[in-house]
Design brief:
By secondary structure, the protein is an alpha/beta fold. Helices cover 50% and strands 11% of the residues. It folds into 2 domains: 214 residues, Spore Coat Polysaccharide Biosynthesis Protein SpsA, Chain A, CATH 3.90.550; 64 residues.
Length: 317
């Protein structure tokens, strides 16, 4: 299989040449995407890099990391490459791991492979505490949102994807900026692509992150809720209607009824000073318990429904 590496370039001028020099022979094509970089990283690569595999593409405006990667994806598909690898330009990802990353795809065991910095517990000492907590929380949220219960570290940007899966993705609908990796997983779940993790160590040196934590905290929750509701609708109402669908419907009804009834009785008790009767407590608590159990059963079905047959087994050419 022919392998293309996409490197989004934005304020990575001091790292880019060293990174390019470490890319091994398993890679056939390297696309450096200058995302309207103020340091003119693309021009710097064209003038300084002698590797004939390297080509520079330019975005006329800054589209963010996702937008730059999608530019590279489209170019790699046009050139006929089988596997696309995204490699950050700041040196946090070792090019020497590319062969390991693409291994499950070349063996046709997966459609999409990504790094996992949580596999080796000793290497987690290198990760700043805030990032460790944030990534752990996002991993749990993403399991609910995208349905890939078998993976960890969803925001890891070291990714590889087979052309069959890439062709089925609506690239123009995928988020351009820092929600890109999470949105990719959601979109992959809608086409039933097989996703796998590759253990890797985190590298933290003198790179500067362009991520705004405050902006992320404000924008991500609504995006996650949107993708979660879409996935549930696509998988359990539009494409299929099974036992999990009924569990979701009745579980939601029972849970909402119990919460509303309990709130009503609590307000009435607070206003009039009358303790709720045993019957009223049961009317509120029993539906909540039943609803919770039904939703947990639906979650069990969802876990068991994680895609297992890779799309790369299908010949699409």
């Amino acid at each position: 299989m022919k392998v293309a590496v996409i490197i989004p370039a934005y304020k990575v001028k001091k790292h880019i040449l060293e990174l390019l020099g470490e890319i091994g022979e398993e890679v056939d094509f390297v696309i450096v995407v200058d995302d309207c970089c103020p340091e003119q990283s693309g021009k710097y690569v064209e003038e300084s890099c002698t590797d004939l595999r390297v080509k520079v593409a330019y975005n006329k405006e800054n589209l963010g990391v996702g937008g730059a990667v999608k530019t590279g994806f489209k170019l790699a598909l046009q050139e006929g490459y089988d596997i696309c690898v995204k490699l950050d330009g700041d040196g946090q990802m070792s090019p020497h791991l590319i062969k390991r990353l693409i291994d499950p795809i070349t063996k046709k065991e997966a459609d999409y492979a990504k790094g996992n910095r949580f596999y080796n517990l000793e290497s987690l000492n290198k990760m700043p505490a805030l990032r460790l907590f944030g990534n752990s929380a996002l991993s749990l949220i993403n399991k609910f949102v995208n349905g890939y219960w078998n993976i960890m570290d969803p925001t890891n940007g070291f990714i590889a994807i087979h052309k069959n899966a890439l062709r089925l993705l609506p690239l123009d609908k995928i988020e351009n900026r820092y929600f890109f990796e999470s949105d990719m997983l959601f979109r992959l779940s809608t086409i039933n692509a097989v996703v796998t993790d590759m253990p890797m160590d985190a590298i933290y040196e003198d790179e500067e992150s362009n991520l705004s934590i405050s902006r992320t905290a404000l924008s991500f929750p609504s995006k996650y809720l949107n993708r979660f509701l879409k996935r549930i609708f696509y998988n359990y109402f539009l494409r299929d209607f099974n036992i999990a669908t009924l569990e979701i419907i009745f579980g939601t009804i029972f849970l909402c009824f119990g919460v509303i009834a309990g709130t009503h009785f609590w307000i009435k008790s607070s206003v009039y000073g009358i303790l709720a009767t045993t019957g009223q407590v049961m009317i509120a608590s029993l539906p909540i318990l039943i609803g919770f159990i039904l939703l947990m059963l639906a979650a069990h079905v969802d876990v068991a429904s994680t895609p297992k047959k890779p799309l790369c087994l299908v010949e699409m050419d």
